[in-house]
Amino acid sequence: MDFKGSHIVSVEQFARQDIGTIFSVAERMEPYAQRRKVTRVLEGAVEGNLFFEPSTRTRVSFAAAFNRLGGSVSSTTGFQFSSMAKGESVYDTARVMAGYCDVLVMRHPVEGSIQELADAIHVPVINGGDGPGEHPTQALLDLYTVQKETGRDLSALDGLKIAMVGDLRYGRTVHSLTKLLSLFDDVTFVFIAPDELRMPTRISSKLRERGAVVHETEDLAGGLSDVDVVYVTRIQQERFTAPEDADKYRGFYSINRAMYEKHCRPGTVLMHPLPRDSRPSADELSSDLNGHPELAIFRQADNGVPIRMALFALVLGVEDQLEETERDVNWYVPKRLGTQDTLDFGKLPTHNE
Amino acid sequence: MDFKGSHIVSVEQFARQDIGTIFSVAERMEPYAQRRKVTRVLEGAVEGNLFFEPSTRTRVSFAAAFNRLGGSVSSTTGFQFSSMAKGESVYDTARVMAGYCDVLVMRHPVEGSIQELADAIHVPVINGGDGPGEHPTQALLDLYTVQKETGRDLSALDGLKIAMVGDLRYGRTVHSLTKLLSLFDDVTFVFIAPDELRMPTRISSKLRERGAVVHETEDLAGGLSDVDVVYVTRIQQERFTAPEDADKYRGFYSINRAMYEKHCRPGTVLMHPLPRDSRPSADELSSDLNGHPELAIFRQADNGVPIRMALFALVLGVEDQLEETERDVNWYVPKRLGTQDTLDFGKLPTHNE
Amino acid sequence: MDFKGSHIVSVEQFARQDIGTIFSVAERMEPYAQRRKVTRVLEGAVEGNLFFEPSTRTRVSFAAAFNRLGGSVSSTTGFQFSSMAKGESVYDTARVMAGYCDVLVMRHPVEGSIQELADAIHVPVINGGDGPGEHPTQALLDLYTVQKETGRDLSALDGLKIAMVGDLRYGRTVHSLTKLLSLFDDVTFVFIAPDELRMPTRISSKLRERGAVVHETEDLAGGLSDVDVVYVTRIQQERFTAPEDADKYRGFYSINRAMYEKHCRPGTVLMHPLPRDSRPSADELSSDLNGHPELAIFRQADNGVPIRMALFALVLGVEDQLEETERDVNWYVPKRLGTQDTLDFGKLPTHNE
């Protein structure tokens, strides 16, 4: 696809080579995202951050990405556009915002609402999550993390084995990530979920159609034993029709360090889209793993910045101008971001392969 | 008036030549507002955006304007200053904010509150709307739109014929625009409203005193037939004492393409302060006009940016330094902002006069 | 202490020489804070402003400070991290934000919460107030104001006499300021409070242990008569178990111009952390003093900017690079910020000593 001027609404719009394009730009963003270099390539540009659903981390991640490119951000975090309450159409809202901003990021609880916004304007729109629908930048940063953490290049994602654990029924991020992974050959999926929270059949069938191997099991220990990546999810209480039903499944699976060491192959990468539920009743991915070098969950979150920078640069067509305003970072950046980090910021565990 | 260091609180403060000053600076802002050029003239300056009433579009328009000049914006969108709830005077609030910001924009539901803020400080204050009171930047961008869309220069506004349609009783924007237009000679106003929502007599009397021709009618078709501009308004439900009364008038007038083509002279400019109420029960300016080149409503909204940039530049006294930091825009800007736009961004319909 | 990479969580962490370091950097920030010069030393850096408790002025003050250093700010003003509601640990929240931002400022209603955040990450965290706990930047700007307004240098704070008036029981700012002042020798404290709102014994005992002279009285007139500084506080209604009890004490002490002139020595500096309660029932520091040159309360608020700039510069290690990107301010800055200011912005009353 031609990224310049495009909307980023769904993972469905990407072909395998588009992923390659995004990731190669994201890699060139790493020095800025990791605060070794500064670029000001988008100085003067304005991003509109329209968050109709609260999501501090996603909003700040987008804003930081745009700021790290030199641009300015205007954020809206209210739950409703007052003007929409006054009967304004999505077309009008979108067209007016397009007059102010060079790119819009929107998060909205209603599936399909971002597509409607994008259909109204030629100013690029990026989907920051539309309820049970899509969250394409999360899927991209997940896949980027898989690639980096397993020490593969994109073509080497063929043959990947990944386990997905937990609420596979309502977990938007696993749905999108499986779609992206289905662009690659010979991927093996191990879906570990209680029967009621199984991966929807429409998704697992489609994966099989595309040639993937799909195993489904309720058995956590067995499912973990022969994969490259374990992707753990939170019980999506907010998507349950009866929220108290979520209690039944919270705590159903819980991976801690002992279990990891007993059942996983050395080097198995642990991922989670965050937030993880650390209440004792849930604890799907125990904090006793925090010091483990293969716990990739924070590096995964960090990867949101270079991925979102790459998308901004691509849709605004500045990906080849980054170096023109480049200089070294002149302020203090800690070697490790978290006090329990075992690796320096931007570094990956070494695999003996 | 001397703009440097001035507050912009009411349209009443402008003489005819002041309008000329603002519009000539706004014109010089067009290359930045239309994202052909970047200026960084206010790099280092800080705007405080104090929005005690929700208004995403007005807030983002001011912020984008300040960002496009190179400055930074701090926005407050809460409904109440916690400190005001603790018994703080407006003087104290204003004086403290003046210590942080170079210019303040405030929107507040109480008429007169912006004047009170402005009276407290020498840091310039711009009124972003004070309830049923004033919204001077809207009136300025409206007049700027009238001038540009009718292909006139300011002196040629003498003799203009304008129809105003809908809720002329509560519509703050039409009140302010009539005041600005009364600075010009031989203006003809056609006020089209149901009897209960007529233009207040104090306003129409004053217009007549100043030499304007004022027609009042309930007949939409007749009122549209011989004017240069039709300015349509939304029923201001939120200003009605009994909001259900608003239902009686919503949908009372509805202008669509068929009606426009039947009753308006070719070239008649269609304006609306937005949001327009697109619910079938209202639809005061139908979306079937979206593809019409004389539908100026989105260009009108776009004009908010150069007008607000001009006011910031004037009150901060930098209007003659714009070019010093100027460079070309290096990112993608679509030719047309909306998918239903019929004209390129920044272009106007051609009139055969 | 070594500031680079440090958290600023409590006034307890400062030794006397640290105060000297902060104030000497703050002094070098004055030209930027007073808008005579621009520096862009932190261009490209991102501050995260996490305000879980509403505090417009503190938030805008931090944001303005970071912007005046050239950096960008992402603000969160919601009352809850949605992710914390989903069971996320403070560690996870902190670590994720550290991936986006170069420095975090947090305000939170729960005492100790900022320390918990700081314990999780190596990215510097600055306490913007944790409920009844600490508000170290307020204490620092208060002490900086004492120093500047009394025309002393830091070593000359030895021997200072200060009266503190009002709600000394719940007033967080007086607790922190006394701790900072106890670093100096021979300081005399006059605590003027109704018996029920006395300075907690643990604080006054500790002051005496450290060699300070402590007088406690309910008599306002007598307490004011022989001090260098009078620090007035508001009744902290929101900290009372039974808020209606606050009414009993509101208005208990009220200092106006007549009282000041009758009881205070010429040159006695009047301070207040703001907001002051200007309702007739409270009026602890009357607005009839607004024109008085020794009313330092707004200069005190203004001092928040250079102090916060100094802390940002120190924890990010750029305090020696300020001048590299320095230039003159090119926009209009009023000589006096408030219409009732008697002194030019940045100027101090002259003392005949």
What are the defining features of this structure?
homotrimer; 353 residues; alpha/beta; Rossmann fold; 5-stranded parallel β-sheet; 4-stranded parallel β-sheet; 11 strands; 34% helix
Q: In a few lines, what is going on in this structure?
A:
The first copy, chain A, has about 350 residues and is an alpha/beta fold. In chain A, about 35% of the residues lie in helices and about 15% in strands. The interface between B and C is large, with 46 and 49 residues.
Instruction: Provide the domain count of chain A.
Output: 2
Order of strands side by side in the largest beta sheet of chain A? 8-7-6-9-10
N-to-C terminal Cα separation of chain A, in Å? 35 Å
Instruction: Assign an overall shape of chain A.
Output: globular
**Amount of beta strand of chain A:** 5-15%
Q: What kind of sheet is the major sheet of chain A?
A: 5 strands, parallel
Give the strand tally of chain A: 11
Could you name the CATH homologous superfamily of the largest domain in chain A? Aspartate/ornithine carbamoyltransferase
The helix-strand sequence of chain A is HEEHEHHEHEHEHEHEHEHHEHHE
